Amino acid sequence: MTFISKVARAARKGAGRPGPRLLTVANAWRLTPNMIRVVFAGPELEGFPTGREGGNCKLMIPDIGETKERFAARLQNGPPPVRRTYTIRKFDADTQELTIDFVAHGDEGPASRWASDAKPGDFLGFAGPSAPKVTQFNADWYLVAADPSAIPVAAAALEAMPRDAKGVAIFEVTSPDDKQDIAIPAGIDVHWLIHPDPHVSSVAQEEVIRTLEWPDGRVQTCIAGESGVIRSLRAFVMNERKLPKEDVYISGYWKIGLVEDQHQQAKRDGIV
Q: Pairing mode, if any, of strands 219-226 and 141-146?
């Protein structure tokens, strides 16, 4: 264990609660043209909780050219780095490897810029993770829908479902080459929709969902993505289909034209 990781571990214990971890990149590659997969490994992942795939976390992004030592000091003493919310895609307790997927949109945001250049030995700060967004699978039929930002949470939910689960999964991606291999139950009907410009709002997911033959029995959802799309889908599943709140996970992960801090404030203000 390095000196830096020892300091971070001691700080977490001293605080009596999990504090920031300083994670190191083991590998990074383009999973698809518009998705980057980063795998972290190292002693800093000691004690990482299992079963958190689909939960969110906070990533703290170092400044360009910042040394690991200076960044580690900032994690403990400030000033705080830029923080962004991401989803746990996978954690392998045997190999102590943590996987997080990043939407690749160039230098538009600090996390995307960091991931685009990530290589073994690079680092960032990590806080979390939360519990998964969908933890109970008791439905007769499932509705899953996601844009690129929400594919990790949707994929985690699909992979956690019983293998005899039935339903529909709708993924809206930027290009046909952005389709991913996901361990989806055979009874889930999968639709890949192509929306080449994520800066323009899309109604494609809602159009597909409204044409579905709604089944009898209990329905559960895992739906996430751009807040404008989510607002309309929430009205559909909650008001028109009248699904009980406990069977619905639906969340806006981002908003066209807003950075994350602005989007989170808009959510707190009830604007989106």
A: parallel
53-67, 187-201, 257-271: lowest mean pLDDT where?
257-271
The domain that contains 21 carries what CATH number?
2.40.30.10
Q: Which sign does the torsion angle of CA 234, 36, 53, 63 carry?
A: negative
| Domain-embedded: residue 134 | no
- 132 within some domain: no
Strand partners, 254: 226
Given a cut of 90, is residue 249 above it in pLDDT? Answer: yes
Domain count, the chain: 2
AA letter at 124: L
Structural domain ending residue among the three candidates 92, 127, 162: 127
Q: Would the pLDDT of 6 be above 90? A: no
pLDDT band per the 50, 70, 90 thresholds, residue 264: low
Report the DSSP beta bridge partners of residue 90: 99
Question: Mind listing the pLDDT tens digit for each residue in 20-37?
Answer: 999 999 999 999 999 999
Contact 55, 132 (CB under 8 A): yes
Backbone angles phi, psi at 76, to 5 degrees: -90, -35
| Strand boundaries in 195-234, DSSP class E | 219-226
In which order are the strands placed within the sheet that holds 141-146? 187-194, 166-173, 141-146, 219-226, 248-254
What SS3 state is found at 78? coil
Nearest alpha-carbon partner for 151 in 27, 35, 29, 30: 35
0.85 exceeded by pTM: yes
Q: Which domain holds residue 71?
A: 3-127
List, as own/partner pairs, every contact residues 48-52 make where C-beta atoms lie below 8 angstroms and the sequence separation is at least 24, other chains included: 48/91, 48/93, 48/96, 48/98, 49/129, 50/91, 50/93, 51/132, 52/88, 52/91, 52/129, 52/130, 52/131, 52/132
